Amino acid sequence: MMAVLAIATVSVRETLRRKVQVNLLVFGTLLVLASYLISTLTLGEQHRIISDVGLSTMHLIGTLLAVFLGSSLVAGDVERRVLYPVVAKPATRSQYLLGRYLGLSCALILNLAVMAAALSGALAFEAGAKALDTTLLASFTMMAVQFLVVAAVAVFFSSITSTTLAAIFTLSIAIAGQLTNEMRNLWRGGGAWLARGLWYALPNLGVLTTNEAVIYHRPLPASTWIAGGYGLLYAAATLALACLAFEQRDFR
Predict the structure, then answer these.
(1) Mean of the per-residue pLDDT values for the chain?
(2) How many domains does the chain contain in total?
(3) pLDDT tens per residue, range 175-211
(4) Which residues of 136-172 are buried (b: 16+ CB within 10 A; e: fewer)?
(5) Can you give the residue range of the structural domain that contains 77?
(6) What one-character-per-residue DSSP string does 18-37 give?
């Protein structure tokens, strides 16, 4: 356990110093704050515009961070041959992978917290009152689960292939995961088995999005927390597959 925590600590520091992470975080935070300025162009729709633009920006930036940081997490160490002295010490490959994922997850949640604070501040300034209600907090939580799922997928591909291919595969799955519900319409016809198989295999990221509840002041669906549990289980299963594949990988 100490080895996992040590690797996770190093991973957090390394991730937070990456230029792509800093640039995307600053860009995302500025966009979230700019949503307030955009909302002033309309009358009576300020809350909806700030919520819509802010949550969409947070989702986009967080997903890109999970994809690009996660895809280079393991593959980058293999390409630079940094991995060899790490696994040669009393740390198994699975411990190394878990530590890297844990560090990445902490960095993603820290990034999310920064953007969430910016959005909450913009909403509070617009409403002149406390903005962090239960629905908004739940939306942030579900967004964090989405990032954990995407990060697990990125780590999986990063552990079996190169950085570039891992980024391409992860980004493709992240986009497809938002469209899994639309695949139900393809269940008719001769290729229904393929659409059904993809629906079960891909992460259903759409059910983890609660933006509409925040934008339109709607109550959260009863299945929200069940969907969150599903996301965590999917991330855990993907990470288990990554550990299994990484243990069998030949670095020669």
Answers:
(1) 80
(2) 1
(3) 888 877 666 665 555 556 666 667 677 888 888 888 8
(4) bebbbbbbbbbbbbbbbbbbbbbbbbbbeebbebbbe
(5) 2-248
(6) -HHHHHHHHHHHHHHHHHHH
